[in-house]
Amino acid sequence: MKVKCKSKSAFVQPIGCMMLSIISVMGISPLVLAVPGQVSLHSSEQSAQRQPQKIAQASGTDAPERSQLLQQANGLFSQGDLTGAEESLRKLIKKFPDDAFGHFQLGNVLFRQKKPEDAINSYREAIRLKPKYALAYNAIGIVYASQSRWQEAITEYQKALEINPNYGEGLTNFAIALWQTNKKDEALSSLEKALNIFKTQNRGEKVNQVERILKEIKTADEPGVS
Question: Which of 47, 60, 191, 198 qualifies as a cystine partner to 203, CB 3.0-4.6 A?
Fold first, then answer.
């Protein structure tokens, strides 16, 4: 009982960061440490990872109308107009119903609007259209984590990591969920792998975040630490 209490208190801050990270998820950047670091991501998604406050832009090969709607949604989201961003994305989906990325981004906006079930439905639709959508599985895991549904979150993170074993944000979120279910050794192992990946990618901010979480976990059970 005591250990469980400690694990919760030790991760109040990281989990809060993670929730911001979903913005990472958003366009794909991370939510807590959830920035998508997928090796297989398209260039438009890779650039989006470096813009956690924005929704990713459409690539140059997209239809002009699609690109315009995504840019409009991006601008509204950046201004904090989530309702407007949602409307733009719904217009996009209406015109391009098989656009997995559009459904994914809509899920991000819905999550930010505190509509978790609707967000999950959008992520599931993205996965239906694009089965190997690691970012979408990670996003669903983040939604479950925000509700402290840790085992369900773990299941989704595992699906993301089966698709991309070197997904840094996925490994980090997975580790946090493991820690919350008292699987310390597994959590540390996942974090160490994420740390090495972020170092290889020269992502200093992520390296610092993971190192901070590693320190939290390693010192949580030490005498005098609360």
Answer: 198
**What local confidence, expressed as pLDDT, does residue 64 receive?**
87
Task: Provide the sign of the torsion angle of the four alpha carbons 180, 185, 189, 195, taken in this order.
Answer: positive
Query: Looking at the predicted structure, is the pLDDT value of residue 130 above 70?
Result: yes
DSSP letter for each residue of 116-148: HHHHHHHHHHHHHHSTT-HHHHHHHHHHHHHTT
d(CA 5, CA 62): 50
Q: Where are the domains of the chain?
A: 2-220
Long-range contacts of the stretch 129-132 (C-beta < 8 A, 24+): 129/98, 129/99, 129/100, 129/103, 130/100, 132/163
144 pLDDT exceeds 90? yes
Q: What is the mean pLDDT of residues 64-76?
A: 90
Q: Does domain 2-220 have CATH number 1.25.40.10?
A: yes
